[in-house]
Amino acid sequence: MIDALWTGWRSQYLEGLTGQAANDAQDQESVFTQILKANISDEDSFIVHRGELVFVILNAFPYAVGHLLVLPYRQVNDLSSLSAMESLELWATVTRASEVLSTVYEPQGLNIGINLGRSAGGSVAEHLHVHIVPRTVGDANFMAVTANAKTISEPLNVTAQRIRQCWLETTMS
Known about the structure:
The protein is α+β, with helices and mostly antiparallel strands. Helices cover 43% and strands 14% of the residues. The chain has 6 helices and 5 strands; from the N terminus they run H-H-H-E-E-E-H-E-E-H-H. It has a 5-stranded antiparallel β-sheet with strand order 1-2-3-5-4. Helix 4 (84-105) crosses helix 6.
């Protein structure tokens, strides 16, 4: 049985931290905004698709091969800050990216999710992004447990090229 330790006095302290973190996140330029402003080529930045209001980039620290991030160009930190058009394009692009990953990698499943806020696991909390991770049985193997390491079997540039090619081919047909 788990014991509960009542620390009601902490709520005022935690509320102060939450407000400060939200202000800090809004004032910071995200890594994604920095990439977009740096005029780096899509090949060098691993952007695999550009839409009108959103784009798709490979996760630089993937959980599995093909781990994509779908996000708006405009830096917002929550769903309610998206315009109606951004929201529509974001979710349509998530659907399209899922189809592309299914074609390229033939996974047995996909994890699709958003971590809103730093305490929810959002490592770039200031810029909303949707994770799409192809999954196969056995992709979380013994390496993480025994060696505190993960194995990613394909370089990012190869992954990006495969996804870009499929995106173009399936859009044209």
